[in-house]
Amino acid sequence: MNAQRFRNALVDTLLVGTVVLLLLFFYAPIATLVAFSFTSSRVLTLPIESFSLAWYGELFSKPDFLPAVRNSAAVAAVSTLFATVLGTAGAVAWIRYRFRMQAAFRALTFAPLLFPQLLLGVVMLLWFSVLGSWLGFSNGLFTVIIGHVVYITPFALVVVAVQVYGFDETLEDAARDAGANGWQVFREVTFPLLWPGIFSAAIFAFLLSWGNFYISYSLAGTARTLPIFVYSGIAVGSSPIYPALATLNLVPALLLVVTAEVFRRRALKRQSSGNPAS
Hints:
It is found in: Cell membrane. With 278 residues, the chain is mostly helical.
């Protein structure tokens, strides 16, 4: 009996220790990066001798920083809108309907995921070069948006598909039996229950687009997004402004993830209470 307890305690200790090591492996570099953003020294070394906010001020004083932020925000917002709509429609078609060549549809859906981002960016660059010479346009934010939509839509589709797969269609039948028309069923039942998945897909797609470098660099032409701004800077040497930039990116990303989790829990609570639209 004592031997069994000892083995169980040993297994529990190993599991807890493994989880702690994994958390340290994942989050120690992030914590170090945040700490480096507050150093007063230009050299990134530990221990940090003194702390300062000077690098945040220098970051905002860069003349091409805010334009890059605006470009990234515009690209990510538009790409997320299209990718979420297309991903939601594709997820509903994928899970709830049966049609000819459905296997081909699924294969084409995941095709962009099979390409490394660098290869996908180069292929799309060649395609837009040919198309641009034919139609008379040059690469810019418009081509970046198209590239991002192609890349992030499958991710949005997968996230929404999980929500659609767990959807209880009898709730829609009950609403129709109660006299609701098609639009009322969608507005009061279907959309509220799918919304957590749609919102999570939108956040995921936005973050993927916001931080994408390879496709943006290949298709942006002379325009600059935030990842291109970072690449252009670190190509000539490291600086504490980039840990400061990473810290500024980390806080909104965490807020978005927490917001998605809040929506998910509220939706589960509404579903368990039997009132999707509450």
